[in-house]
Amino acid sequence: MMSQDPWLQNYDATCRLAQEIAENIHERNRQQRTGGNPAKINMTLRASLQKLKQNIAQLKEGLLRSSSSRRIMQSETDRRQNLIDNLLTREKQLNATFKGDITEPEPSRSTLMSGGAAAGTPNPWLIEESEETKGLSFGEIKQQQQRIIEVQDAGLDALAAVISRQKIMGQEIGNELEEQNEIIDDLAHLVDKTDSRIRNETRRVKLVETKSASCGMLVVIVLLLIAIVVIAVWPV
After folding, report:
1. How many Cβ atoms from other residues are within 10 Å of residue 52's Cβ?
2. Where are the alpha helices (DSSP H) in the chain?
């Protein structure tokens, strides 16, 4: 069996304390009307009202810790904040009634527990809940929150798996880019070597052309000299 949330246990105890204070105030007022001595019950009421204030402060601190650590969903945080706001309103009403600033008709115990339906006055403890949690016990609400958290955890796991696959794909693409860069570097090196060879061969071709032109001129000069000599020695 799932244990009840400590915050909800404290809230339930605080509600019971407030209900007890309301009953004691009505009893105090009854004693005052009948000429009794309410001194003792007034002392009890002061201590109970102080305890109620402390309990509400503890509920506020507990809700702040739970919401900060994300142990509960935002919807549950809002619901609990509404419960605390209603407790604060009820505390102010009880303090005002205790001091005599406002008066309330004396209800029966059945009227207090049923929300004042017989007198037509709504009970502030009957909080209007959302459709999702209406009719559920504290344990069932906690189970519902647990299921929602499990669904969100499953979604986070799926998202983590997608991110992991994307990371692997990114690493593979990075490796391919490195290989392509290496191939490009090799091609650039080969292009540089080829360009150097072309320049060397071009210089050799020009050198050969120059030598060929010089040799051609020498051949022509030699032929001219031979022709001159032949003509000179040839008998007329």
Report:
1. 20
2. 6-33, 39-68, 74-99, 109-114, 138-233
Distance in angstroms (rounded) separating the CA atoms of residues 173 and 192: 28
Helix orientation angle between 6-33 and 74-99, rounded to the nearest 10 degrees: 20
* pLDDT over 70 at 135, yes or no: no
Q: Write out pLDDT tens, residues 11-63.
A: 999 999 999 999 999 999 888 888 888 888 999 999 999 999 999 999 999 99
Q: Distance of CA 49 to CAs 4, 9, 19, 56, 128, Å?
A: 26, 19, 11, 11, 25
Spatial distance between the Cα atoms of 72 and 147, rounded to a whole number of angstroms: 12
Report how far residue 52's alpha carbon sits from residue 48's, in angstroms, rounded to the nearest whole number.
6
pTM for this one?
0.45
Cα(first)–Cα(last) distance of the chain, in Å? 146
Which tokens sit at 199?
Answer: 């320049």
